[in-house]
Amino acid sequence: MKEIAFLGKNKKKWETFEQALADGKSPLNLTDLYIELTDDLAYARTFYPNSSVTAYLNSLASKAYLLIYKNKKEKSSRFVTFWRHELPLTMNECRRPMLYSLIIFLVTTLIGVLSVSQDSDFPRLILGDGYVNMTIANIESGDPMGVYGHSDELTMFLHITYNNIIVSFRVFVFGLFTSIVSAIALSYNGIMVGCFLAFMAKYGVPWDQLIVIMLHGTLELSAIVIAGGAGIVLGNGILFPGTYTRLHSFRKGATRGMKIVVGLVPVFIVAGFIESFITRYAFMPQALKLLIVGVSFIFVLYYFVIYPFLLAKKINDHAKS
Q1: pLDDT per position as a tens digit, 266-308
Q2: Which of 5, 79, 115, 274 registers the highest number of CB atoms within 10 A of its CB?
Q3: Residue 189 burial (C-beta neighbours within 10 Å; 0-12, 13-18, 19+)
Q4: Whole-model pTM above 0.85?
């Protein structure tokens, strides 16, 4: 059967099933419908392995499996289901926009570094005269990370956490004006990070001091990159509706993106706690710094990359069996 005929024959059935899942209602004879859906998926994988239809059915089967899981045995709350299944599956579905976001951030960070090497006044343009002058004074006094000890812990924690959450939501919401605008907002953050690192290095701040920034920066910067990916997901829903109506595609992108951004809130809270209560102890043992950075990096890599992949693979293997 040609792909267009396969699509025409089953499209209405798939759309009805997807709408029932989106509404959070369990369709009648859900298990039977799920079996029928996985049959269609198996057929599509055999004859149209690289088709968008196959990708669509794979995504739909994942959602159906999750709904069946929720309606089964476990009396786990909606909260637990979100963190164990919904968010990781959404991250896996959005892995390509996340990769784009990471590339944009890394490239613009490099641009920030190169800009400082070419123009010594560039940090003042990006970071502001007040911050630059304060940091230079701290460096000259032998305490380059002194900025972290100027406020009491609780006040600093509330301010930093609020600011980081606002930054992430802003990068995401810019996706309403297309993914290009989200990418621009993310680029500014990348340039700012690159500018800051190059500025500190230019004034001779040693690596063992710069790594203090990564105590909180590992979580904070990773979350900003992920928020940028969520913004791209939202914007792409508007720009590239595919076989959906533009409104339906927008809603789908907005739902996915919002799940991701909401899932980042605890990450920003932990990052804010580290920055406010721990980063101020810049002269702690190097081994302890590396431990905190390493644990943070492993968490981000596992929960937002590896675990989503493994969960989706488990669901796909279940669909094949």
Answers
A1: 999 999 999 888 877 767 888 899 999 999 999 999 999 999 9
A2: 274
A3: buried
A4: no
